[in-house]
Records
---
Amino acid sequence: MEASTQQERVTPLELFFDLVFVFAITQVTTMLSADPTWGGLVRGLAVLAALWWAWAAYAWLTNTLNPEEGIVRIAMFVVMAAMLVVALAVPEAFGDHGVVFGVAYLVVRAMHLALYALAARGDHDLLGAVLRMTPSSTISGVLILSAGFLEGDQRTALWLLALAIDYLGVLVGRGQGWRLSPGHFAERHGLIVIIAIGESIVALGVGATGTPLTAGVITAAVVGITVATALWWTYFDWVAIVVEQRLRQATGAAQATLARDAYSYLHFVMVAGIVLFATSMKKTLADFDAELGTVPAAALCGGLAAYLLAHVLLRYRISRTIGRGRPVALLALVAVWPLADDVPALVALGATAVIFVALIAYEAIRYREPRYRLRHGELATEEMMSAPRVTASR
């Protein structure tokens, strides 16, 4: 079995693997909804961060190694079983199932290292990169397992320490030695964004379950799907295209660090924001005419703000510019945030929808020509990133 960097399409097995992650995300939204407190918010995001890093680790692995071949296929099924146990334990990861979560999670991480070491046979540089990552990955998994034997603030503190070690550990080596197939890597992360947005649509349905289908519920559902559609639009309209182009243009360690920053780090912020939005939808659909609580309001406005913040940082990472539309929309969400728990949930949701629709309209009009060229195969340039107003029509 040899590592391959030529794979450009996501395989059926990778999509199958991601189904377990879909369930895990659903479990996180359930966990957040069941404990709408600041502590519950921290714990839910900590679990999501651990799940994301495990998923991202396998996104890197299957980008290098064909998961459909030989023993790797069997190993991936074993990992799926372990990840399913992780997902089942999510609601009580900080409770009675902390040890179960920790054991299964450690298996997932250990299998990743073993498969990556197997893929790196004969590739000294890649093997060196895997070895540099091994200490932080192992220590993090052991700490999360150890946290299962603790209680209260001690458990939370150990979780946060484990995540810090894991997320910062990959900075060692500055991207040296990693192999990357840009098209496959970008597609894999684009699909996970769709999965996260899909969870917000599921949350709309779950929130409406058992509730009479009144005009208010229907309106809330339509406004909710409008925001979900805007999340899809703001990512796939041009962001996904530009980032993939930049990833293809980069080489060597620069390509690996760009993939790490743009996808492993900033896409987590994006997905976390979508998950928080999905959590707020359960409350909004169930009580659309009641005021949102403080934490659900934070999930709604703060989650969408985090999603746009990831976009702003992503643009800065690839072009050293931040643009105008998305920073302004981000500030608008922050401005609405303090008011969101003082008005009916439908009003708060409607305000966020107006912000996103205005953002999309602004970009569609102001960046008309650059968007057209970009979406029809032209490479993004610095001029297109700064996007001056173009008056020519097509």
---
Amino acid sequence: MANISAAITGIECSVPDYILTNQQLEKMVDTSEEWISTRTGIKERRILKGEGLGTSDMAVDAVKKLLIKTGTSADEVDLLICATVTPDMLFPATANIISDKAGIKKTLSFDINAACSGFIFALATAEKYVKSGMNKKVVVVGADKMSSIVDYTDRKTCIIFGDAAGAVLVEPNIEGLGIQDSILQSDGAGRVHLHQKAGGSIKPASHETVAAGEHYIYQEGQAVFKSAVKHMADVSVEIMNKNGLTSNDIAWLVPHQANLRIIEATAQRMGLPKEKVMINIYRYGNTTNATIPLCLWEWEKQLKKGDNIILAAFGGGFTWGSIYLKWAYDAK
């Protein structure tokens, strides 16, 4: 019996129409286009506008387009995993809501929250289900409406985040393609530097927590930056060494789009030139769980069957990880 691996066989994304530029942010908070660009690499970000629209709406758009693109019926999907930190509501899982809205019935669906590393954690989880033989068509979604938890009076965080969703189809492969290895790690001590203070069971929502702005992102920028540079670079080099890869063997690095300087530091540690690094942070900002699928989607036509690709991410928690995969198809 042939060895089964889990491979991405299709990808789609959904980005809102509304564009929030650095020039617009200059009028909202005490900042400047030059300050934002120099420190983050971001020029603009997409924001989901509209009454009653949430993370699931972008995700459903991406999933429906993915099913059409891959010729997959909703009835064939036997697992859907959603990575998000901005669920539509505390329960049910946003994955349940996506499945319902996309017409995916009687299937297993659940959420994963690993902050900005969530998509990688979800993809590695999907691999286990596929390799075990339990599931044959798995949809992995990375989606966040970060604007719902951003304080647009806080110039340290409001410049960073945007909204988007991405979805990939994961299927069995017997050609040795797909996910080859993954390294996932976390350190809960880092939670003090990046979190949302209120809204959970420790500090439920109240008039006082809302008035104090405790439902927005709280971030200690320097501590997060230093940890992200170290851990994202370390885990990327670790997975290379573990699998006997050199910089010449790697076709693409797909890094989480948190900050241009973090991306550049990771690529430098891996010995990769800029030409091998997917970077679109300047157009979308940090869309949290959607950054990696957004990159794969935009570069899909340049990817070749058999390409060695490294995915790398770092997020609140702290969480971090890397996946080594061999791309499974040439885009039509």
